[in-house]
Write a structure and sequence with these properties.
heterodimer; A: 113 residues; mainly beta; 6-stranded mixed beta sheet; 5-stranded antiparallel beta sheet; 11 strands; B: 114 residues; 4-stranded antiparallel beta sheet
Amino acid sequence: KQEVTQIPAALSVPEGENLVLNCSFTDSAIYNLQWFRQDPGKGLTSLLLIQSSQREQTSGRLNASLDKSSGRSTLYIAASQPGDSATYLCAVRVSSNTGKLIFGQGTTLQVKP
Amino acid sequence: GAGVSQSPSNKVTEKGKDVELRCDPISGHTALYWYRQSLGQGLEFLIYFQGNSAPDKSGLPSDRFSAERTGGSVSTLTIQRTQQEDSAVYLCASSLYSGLDGYTFGSGTRLTVV
């Protein structure tokens, strides 16, 4: 059974710091992995999608990496800003035959001005 | 539409009543998903529709929950005889079949059963 874990559960950093959020999954046989952002009381916003054949994806100050063999993904945020404060969720899709995403519990990030 | 639209955004209902939640996916997206987010529970898969195929209902928590998708577009999630434990945010998402693109989520319906 696939399980997704995110560490840390919460993180507080001063503005300007570079930071790394971690996601691990127990079964390396995945179809893709997606990182989302959720603001309080809002839905999920897709940040980056990494297919199983890819190693990383970049969008602006965000970089996500994927190491299937070790069951890990990291989300790197460069030069953090207060507007980055949100909960970050990673989700694994186990195969192309199912639409089911398995989510981690999320990391709640606070960037202090 | 430009995004996934869900209605209502908030719903308060009395225990025992039935509720219907609506999701309007992005035009052209053939796949549609319902998830539930409860306090302390994370995001829980409920049901998945793909084109004309039989839906994957494996995540529905009980037979009080059902969903349909009419004409391959709009979907309705129905909860019968609501219970307090049904209180949660119900999120809908859609995607292209290929899976090469990610999922787009709506803003959700916050359901409160009193």
